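In the current project phase, work has continued on tokenised descriptions of protein folds. One protein thus recorded appears below exactly as we store it.

——
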Amino acid sequence: MPPVTQKAFDQRGLKTLVLWLAWLSTAGFVFVILYHKADIFQFIHQDASRITWLISAVFLFGLLISFVHALLLTGEWFRGYRIETVMRRKGLGGVRPKRRRVVDRFIAALQHISEQGTTPDIAALVDVEFAAHHRASRFVGLLGNLLITMGLIGTVLGMTMTLSGLNGALAAIGDDQQLMLEGLSSAMSGMGIAFYTTLLGSILGGILLRVFAWITDSSIDGLQDLMMRSSLVYAAADLAPTPERDIRLLNQQVQQLERRILALHDLFRDGGKTVAAFNDEVTRLNDTIKEVGEGEDLLKAISIHRYYASLLRSELRLQKRLRHKAGAIGDWWNRIRGKY
């Protein structure tokens, strides 16, 4: 059967990134409104408590993590659709996992379980393999909750500054007009901190970051559904314990055994050439030793002897590899005999 090739760019994998960018555009529109209606950037710049700076920094950090996560999920979707196409045409054994993505690790685990002759719990395996993506999505949601909490803390801090300023202003009535004005200014500044931190925490954390987390979490759930459906529909024959599956596994093992035998034959051929070259060099060394005398000729003979010693070590390593390959082939043959 000819190899499976992707005829065109599969745009289905872009849906997570497109949805994320669409919500990012909404977030930008919200910031524009805040800039024109509430003049929030000027207040952030003049905020002496710096709590609005901290809220903005946490939001940007969560936004960066969510964007990177959306890119990773987009790559997972492209690879997932590719695996689905291969499984539909060639079955589970036709997929060659690359082990760089979660979907590849999931397929590799299914193939390993199938080779062991057992029936996998696909739902549990999917949950385990995609747990890391779920943790990343929940972390962004946690940052959203943290922003709401920081907004409430800013509210309490601002109300405290307001009460302190009013207290100073009331104490200065009739005594010091400048001190009274400073107290009122501090009270108004505290009210601004209370309202702006609540506004930033609720919008940035309670709305924007939570929706970003929902987008990635929904993408993970859809990716899990895709892999479960592909496994149940296109890999059912490879996962069910039937004689047909055993025959397919036997054919795959025989093909792997043939490749190992060919590799072993090449190693033996190269080993024979190396041994023959080593014998020629040893003979030449004996002739050289007989002809050398003292001085520079003796030093040259020692150098030649070192070269031949390194050549012998290479030959010993080659023999060790040959024994390892032979043992692996024996293991394969014993497994096939024990199964059939």
